[in-house]
Amino acid sequence: MLSNNPFSILSETISPFAMQSFIIAMVLMIAIGTIIQMIHHKNLTYFFNNAKKAKLSATKKLGVGEKASIIAKTTVVDIGTTSELGFGKRRLAHVLGMYGTILFWISSVVLVFSYTGLDKPNSETWSILWHAGAILTCIGGYWFWFFLRVDVSAEAHPWYRIIKADLFVLALLACATFGLAWSYTQFNGQIGLSFLFLMLFVAANLILFGGVYWSKFAHMFYKPGAAIQKNLAEADGSRDNLPPPADAPEQFGLGIKREEPKHY
Ligand code: HEM
Q1: Distances from the Cα of 185 to the Cαs of 171, 178, 195, in angstroms?
Q2: CB atoms < 10 A from the CB of 66, how many?
Q3: Which of 48, 95, 178, 216 is surrounded by the fewest CB atoms within 10 Å?
Q4: Distance from the CA of 88 to the center of ligand 1, in angstroms?
Q5: Greatest distance between any 2 Cα atoms in the chain
């Protein structure tokens, strides 16, 4: 099953052009949802105003090379490993889900555009990557959902309590889970079930990409922007208008040792 391209078998009933158009429509929905969210929430305006204000208190002018090196380092370390989540389960779960999703999306595009259709070759590698991406998304996502979510791990709410903020993680998990279930049932020739899971897979994608405006989807664009801005502000001395760390010993009293800090 893992080396099977489910889109290729689907192309016997649905044209590859329809599948390609679906992917293009999803990309457009991401762009539209993110832009409307930025306009409504005014987060981009806030971000640029803040950066402009901070620039005034900069103590050092950064050269192009210095800026490029800070951006490259931030991309590899802070963004590539989601370092703001500290060291621990939360970060590991996020990294698994993040790279799983990126792999799932890239391989979906490659499979549909290059390996689906009558005259198209087969690629076992890309099919395996598609399944691996979905499996990694499920491992990271379900770990987060059942055990690490703040509502569950810190606020003692049951795992089945669902609020609007869960739209993103649940839609993401539904995509990966129904995608795998569709591929499995299709491979085993269970026509009825495979049609059902395909419909659920399509619906989950429509909710995930159609819900960008209402969900946390766009954090994958905002977070990298904020990390780069923070590190540039650190290097040019403006520190986002925050005071420098106090030049004093870190004495917090014994109370700080009572409970391990958690990184939310
Ligand atoms: C394809 C890219 C990404 C995917 C699929 C992804 C996925 C997720 C998911 C499913 C959540 C849980 C959302 C929730 O609270 O319900 C989350 C939270 C979070 N993400 Fe991402 N993310 C991506 C990129 C990024 C990037 C690039 C950063 C930072 C540079 C980032 C930082 C965070 C942080 C700080 C949280 C809160 C985590 C927590 O509460 O434990 N994410 N992400």
Answers
A1: 21, 10, 9
A2: 14
A3: 48
A4: 15
A5: 71
What is the model's pTM? Answer: 0.89
The residue whose C-alpha atom lies closest to atom 10 belonging to ligand 1 is 169
CATH class of 6-51+85-235: mainly alpha
Q: How confident is the model at residue 263 (pLDDT cuts 50, 70, 90)?
A: low
Note the pLDDT tens digit of each residue in 178-203: 999 999 999 999 999 999 999 999 99
Cα 94 to ligand 1 centre (Å): 6
**Which of 96, 98, 230 maximizes ligand 1 atoms within 8 Å of its Cβ, making it the mutation to test the pocket?**
98
Separation in Å, CA 254 to CA 88, 94, 250, 251, 258:
23, 32, 12, 9, 7
d(CA 204, CA 134): 14
Q: Six-digit token pair at 226? A: 């904020």
Closest atom of ligand 1 to CA, residue 102: 1
The number of the ligand 1 atom at minimal distance from the alpha carbon of 100 is 5
